[in-house]
Amino acid sequence: MVDAFLVGCTEKFYEIFGENITGVYLHGSLVLGGFVPAKSDVDLIVVTEKPMSRMDAVQLTDFLLEQSGSPYPIEISVLNRRQLDEWQHPCPFDYHYSEDWRNRFLTGGSTYGEEREDPDLAAHLTIIHHSGCVLFGKPVDEVFPPVPKQDYLDSILSDYEDCLENVEVEPVYSVLNILRVYYYLEDERIYSKDEAGQWALSSPFSKTVVKVLKRRRGDDVSIADEELASFKRYYQEKIEASLHEKKVRVKGSVNVGD
Question: 197: how many CB neighbours lie within 10 A of its CB?
């Protein structure tokens, strides 16, 4: 069913962009092996030869408002080749949509009309290089520049800061992404949410992680705020100690090692 959904999306993107489309690329949980049909997004990057037009944006928005969430939510960014010719971080983009932004689009707002920058793209493009899938178009190495490790780290640490703030509100997303950051700092390997959770089953917070993984699969499991707060303190200390040891300076996030 996911394959048919991806084919339908790709065909629609080609219908909208025509010969201007360079490629459609899949990243995120579907390529990392942690996709949960009832919860996970389908994560896509579309690259065009030239900047998309306003009409392209209108047609794409209409399609996404209709298709996203039926049955899988879509998170997508559209970039043009000029934005990728020379890597910069944060990376510029032409258009972005996710279900978190649905109301913005429904009330007349959008991300089209001015070039913006997204620090998350450093992480997305790193995953595309690591294990991304070409749904249509040119090979990954012909389209996407290499992303420096420092920019990838800055990207995931920016998300990590959000996770620290929201661990009690969004425990599944926050706990598993904090673990992904911790294990990346340990061995510079990119883990899926489920892989990071499995590794943490031998940690001092194995009981909390078991609950998180069960809730991720749809079980109604209670997780106390106190155990989430303890988890946060423990891994925040571990991560900041690791950053200090590596003398990492992170743009717009955590500065350590001065």
Answer: 22
